[in-house]
Design goal:
The chain is an alpha+beta fold. It has helices spanning 2-12, 55-68; strands at 18-22, 30-34.
Length: 74
């Protein structure tokens, strides 16, 4: 159903670059879903890049998974 809504919005509003919605996975916290036409608004390269298996990210991922109530599988 959500995909149909997104397609209808995409077609009805050609200037829209995405949707702002309440996340069902994070207690209705604000989230964004971008359409491909938002590509020009994003940087060409990330400002930070690490593999998810990188030890540098472990503490951050543990904190995030705990906050969301997810189990982190390493």
């Amino acid at each position: 159903m959500a995909r149909r809504w997104a397609r209808a919005i995409y077609e009805a509003y050609p200037d829209a670059v995405g949707l702002w919605y309440g996340s069902s996975m994070d207690a209705n916290a604000p989230s964004a879903a971008l359409f491909e036409r938002a590509e020009a608004a994003l940087p060409g390269l990330p400002s930070f890049h690490r593999a998810l298996a990188d030890e540098t990210l472990r503490s951050f991922l543990e904190t995030c998974s705990e906050a969301l109530g997810y189990r982190l599988i390493l």
